[in-house]
Amino acid sequence: MNPEDFLDVDRDLSGEERAIRDTVRAYGDAELLPHVADWFEAGTIPDPRGLARSMGKLGVFGMHLTGYGCAGAGAVGYGVACRELEAVDSGLRSFVSVQGSLAMTAIHRYGTDAQKQEWLPRMVTGEALGCFGLTEPDSGSDPGSMRTRARRDGDDWVLDGTKMWITNGSVADVAIVWARTDEGIRGFLVPASAPGFSANVIHKKISLRASITSELVLDGVRLPKEALLPGAEGLKAPLSCLSEARYGIVWGAAGAARACLLSAIDYAKSRVQFDRPIAGFQLTQRKIADMLVDVNHAMLTALSIGRLKDAGNAHHAHVSFGKLANVRAAQRVAATARSILGANGITLEYPVMRHMVNLETVATYEGTEEVHALTLGRAVTGLDAFR
Hints:
This protein is α+β, with helices and mostly antiparallel strands. It folds into 3 domains: 3-125, Butyryl-Coa Dehydrogenase, subunit A, domain 1 (Orthogonal Bundle), CATH 1.10.540; 130-234, Butyryl-CoA Dehydrogenase, subunit A, domain 2 (Beta Barrel); 237-381, Butyryl-CoA Dehydrogenase, subunit A, domain 3 (Up-down Bundle), CATH 1.20.140.10. Helices cover 51% and strands 17% of the residues. It has 10 helices and 12 strands. The model has no long low-confidence stretch (mean pLDDT 95).
């Protein structure tokens, strides 16, 4: 039996989706896995521009979008790519999803044709990088309480505020910044070269170390009126982009869980104690069985939501279901795998602890477990418990 896909979930993938799976997996095995432990230990991506160009050639940036050089792949195809990337590392999947599902989607969905023409073709190839500035130091799960403001000054806009925990912030060429205005919350394209804009790298992270995380500071950043994303009005705009990124996490968490399971099985079959491989002990086999169930449930959940999305029938509550269920399952799998590996489980020679600490961040970013639980409760009761 195949522990990687015990229920043969991938049998339901189309030929194109399998090609995406195989291409991204081969790329991850050859270009990412040999280096990711070192990047994690160093706490950075040494050459993010080179990585971006490499991933641009792979075709994963904005692959679910159409036009402007985007691949126009379906939701399942994009999800499979996220699964294979996060099987390597959550930070690398985040590198792709922030670029495509957040920054590029915001421009593609809410920008003018001129804005799309200026940025999207270069972002597809990785020649330009974007970030998404929504979260603030005191405004995470409640983005409506943001303090960043944009005020009109003649034909210009002037932005002041701070954004926090911004992936790719210090290497981005353009930041999609959400700010409060007299007309409500609006989105702006802020070039990194704009006077008054700065990005400070956040150090001393224990999780998502193979990722660049930054604070964005906007100190009287003056922008022309053309910097406004005209189609983005109110919180629904940034939240719709977040739903796209969360969808990638639904698949990505399944990839991280699968990597932990396979590492634990390989280790248990080769680690000898009391004159036999520990895989032959009942307690170890029970742990493996529990992990196997979690991984396959996660893969089935991701595929089901992906098919709903491709059919145009996915509600944001479906994505909340997937993120809540799959991240929770992946955390269980990582913790159990680490127990099987024992002391070796804490080293970067194996991927388990790296996935385990990464998933601590995945569990809280782009919607905490509590927020997704309340989203599901509201979806089935019709009652809002947020306030």
